[in-house]
Design brief:
The complex is a heterodimer of chains A (about 200) and B (about 500). Chain A has about 200 residues and is an all-alpha fold. Chain A has helices spanning about 1-5, 10-30, 35-55, 55-80, 95-120, 135-140, 145-165, 185-195. In chain A, about 70% of the residues lie in helices and about 0% in strands. In chain A, α3 (about 35-55) runs antiparallel to α4. The model of chain A is unreliable at about 170-195 (pLDDT under 50). Chain B is mainly α and about 500 residues long. Classes of the chains: A mainly alpha (about 200), B mainly alpha (about 500). The interface between A and B is large, with 43 and 49 residues.
């Protein structure tokens, strides 16, 4: 154990891991949605730092760009645009029974995976062998070109479907030949009243 | 160099997906989007056929299976057969949707776009032989279906269906991905052949714990997708709340895609640990059949009944997997099990799509899917009532309808292995077949024998006609169910496909 503490990267790991766990804990327990999202930023930034520690630079900066840069901002936009209440949210907190169940399940899962990982990899020394970004690019467009293209169809489908579900239908659909479809007008007004 | 002939089905379908969007923007009647979609699906069949009969064609100088991208993507007899199945079922699913969307004034172009994009994912899954491609394909299958389930925007039930489906779907994707990452971490390989080679003897080493968790999580992720008990709780609500054509799509194509992923991963990637997943899937099969059927007994709504029945049918499809529970099940026994699963999937697609077609047609007239309102259907809609009987008896497995052959090969594969556990599963399946027969026939008997309840506008309903597209879909599925039932040799070509695929077991 003494040996473990003398190595610099282990200290770096502790420095990264502590705020990470704290951020994860607070983002689950916080009663304010915006605070939860901001605590999630800490967790994600720490995970990017862990990737850097492992020599996986490309993955690290992808986490920063995609998760912190895009997904979190999307969360915040989503909260703002849907006009969800921004302050304290008492309805978000569950009954103690539910909390206990969730804690038990996640605790058991954590214990199971930790034991399995430690028995599996506990003594293995990781040889740092950083993958160059150019290699990742090569394999992405050669070996993994099909998943790459398929992902773009997934995003297009999510975009278009999301627009259809989120937009307000025209209150008076014309005849079925030229109308944009949509639900019956009664429902539309009901929706419009809320929005 | 990319083999464009081998990728032609996917490329044509991808082109169709985009064409549907473009036609949707043109100032033409919206049902042209469906026409374009159907034509595109039809065009996709051409390369599937030329690839399938490559050896007897002049311009095609390739034999055997084509491996691309370092073994990640494989075109062989098995994947082609399943692509054909997906395209055929998608054709029927689009036909089921046309009249429904039009009469309810739902958005049309975007709907067909989403449905065909989802089918594209199914095609990719049928060929994918590595974890990344399989996962991304599965996401393309399920992603659009979350949105399609919420297509009845004004209805709270449809919103609930979409939300439940979405949350459970995302959870299962996370579980699946975590399992896959553990498998990759242990074996260091992404392709199924690599994983299989890397997993030799892994159960005896230090990494056994991680590998077992990885395998079980992967199976669990797929169990959500095929709604096996106890991971089924989203199914009835989603099936009932979603638009009925979407329910038909979910219960056939999306479910089949899940089973295809399960087949490829279990038999190819986890071929060294058959007893591990055999045990897990034995339990899931027994639970799905029993729980699905027992709850189906108490249903009063036809759509919910079909929801639980599809859970139970999923259990029957899992039975051959469960037969791999014993260690001495190898080689030809596994081949038999594999063939049984594929056959069941093909026949199930016909019967279930047909059954939902009838539900859509009748539901459109009666405005009700309650079984008690369907009493006496035969007296005023004899054609639909007959088809209802046909599909329901086929689902129950009554000869000479196609369903009996599916059940027959299923039982044959389980009993062939001869182990005690497999025999026990066969007994569970047999008891469940009887239970299933009871609730299927109850609906049919009420439609044929009982009196029409008061308040059903019989005269009005007699005047109504079924949309031509729906009629076409019903005719196609009826022919399928009857012809395969009488001439099961028609799909024995599948046996060959299964053999080539299974030659590596």
């Amino acid at each position: 154990m003494n040996d473990w503490l003398t190595q610099a990267e282990n200290w770096a790991f502790i420095l990264i891991a502590l705020p990470m766990v704290l951020g994860a804990w607070r983002s689950v327990t916080s009663r304010n949605v915006v605070h939860s999202v901001l605590f999630l930023v800490i967790t994600l930034a720490a995970s990017a730092a862990l990737f850097l520690l492992l020599g996986a630079e490309f993955v690290a900066w992808s986490v920063v760009l995609v998760y912190i840069g895009a997904v979190i901002v999307l969360f915040l936009f989503g909260i703002m645009i849907t006009r969800a209440p921004l302050g304290m949210e008492t309805e978000l907190s569950h009954s103690n029974q539910t909390k206990l169940g969730a804690a038990l399940v996640s605790g058991a899962l954590f214990a199971l995976i930790t034991v399995a990982v430690i028995t599996g990899f506990g003594e293995t020394e990781i040889v740092s062998n950083p993958t160059r970004t150019s290699e990742i690019g090569q394999s992405m467009f050669e070996r993994f070109v099909i998943p790459f293209e398929v992902v773009s169809v997934v995003l297009l489908a999510a975009l278009i479907g999301g627009i259809v579900l989120a937009r307000r239908d025209p209150a008076e659909p014309g005849d079925s030949s030229s109308s944009l479809g949509g639900a019956q007008s009664a429902h539309v007004t009901a929706e419009g009243g809320e929005a | 160099m990319i083999d464009y002939h081998a990728l032609a089905p996917e490329l044509i379908l991808a082109g169709t997906v985009m064409a549907v969007l473009i036609v949707d923007m043109l100032p033409v009647r919206k049902h042209w989007t469906a026409v374009v979609g159907l034509l595109g699906l039809f065009a996709t069949v051409v390369p599937i056929l030329t690839l399938g009969f490559c050896e007897s064609l002049d311009f095609c100088d390739y034999s055997g299976s084509r491996e691309m991208f370092g073994g990640s993507y494989v075109i062989d007899a098995f994947s082609l057969a399943l692509k054909g199945l997906f395209i055929g079922s998608a054709f029927v699913a689009v036909l089921l949707s046309v009249g429904y969307l039009e009469s309810n004034r739902f958005w049309q172009g975007e709907f067909y776009f989403l449905m065909l994009a989802s089918v594209l994912g199914a095609l990719v899954m049928a060929s994918s032989r590595d974890l990344v491609t399989m996962f991304v394909g599965l996401e393309l299958v399920t992603g659009p279906t979350f949105l399609m389930a919420g297509w009845r925007k004004g209805e709270a039930r449809s919103n609930e269906a979409a939300l439940k489906f979405f949350i459970i779907g995302v959870l299962s994707a996370a579980v699946l991905l975590f399992g896959m990452s553990l498998v990759y971490g242990v074996t260091g390989e992404l392709t199924f052949t690599g994983i299989r080679a890397g997993s030799v003897g892994v159960l005896d080493g230090d990494l056994s714990g991680l590998f077992i968790i990885g395998v079980l999580f992967t199976i669990l992720g797929f169990a959500f997708k095929v709604s096996a008990v106890p991971f089924h709780f989203w199914t009835p609500d989603t099936y009932e709340g979603a638009p009925t054509p979407v329910t038909a799509y979910l219960s056939v194509i999306s479910k089949t895609a899940g089973f295809v992923g399960l087949l490829a991963i279990c038999y190819l990637a986890f071929g060294e640990v058959t007893t591990l997943w055999g045990t897990g899937l034995w339990v899931l099969a027994a639970l799905s059949m029993t729980v699905g059927n027992l709850i189906a007994l108490r249903q009063t709504n036809v759509v919910r009944l079909l929801g639980y029945s599809s859970i139970a049918q999923g259990g029957f499809i899992l039975v051959p997997f469960g037969a791999a529970i014993a260690a001495d099940v190898t080689g030809s026994d596994l081949e038999e099990a594999f063939f049984a699963t594929v056959t069941y999937l093909v026949i199930y697609a016909f019967m279930n799509l047909g059954a939902f077609g009838v539900v859509i047609a009748v539901g459109n007239r009666l405005r009700s899917a309650e079984i008690k309102d369907w009493a006496g259907l035969f007296s005023y809609a004899p054609g639909l009532a007959t088809m209802l009987g046909l599909f329901f008896f086929s689902l129950a497995g009554i000869p000479p309808l196609a369903g009996w052959f599916a059940k027959f090969v299923m039982f044959r594969s389980v009993l062939a292995s001869g182990s005690g556990w497999a025999g026990a599963l066969a007994v569970v399946a047999a008891v469940n077949s009887v239970i299933a027969f009871y609730y299927y026939s109850k609906v049919v008997v009420s439609a044929f024998m009982e009196k029409v309840p008061d308040g059903v506008p019989v005269a009005e309903i007699r005047e109504q006609r079924t949309a031509p597209s729906l009629q076409f879909a019903l005719v196609l599925t009826t022919i399928g169910v009857v012809v395969i039932g009488f001439y099961p040799t028609l799909i024995s070509g599948l046996a060959e496909a299964a053999k080539t695929f299974a030659s590596g077991f």
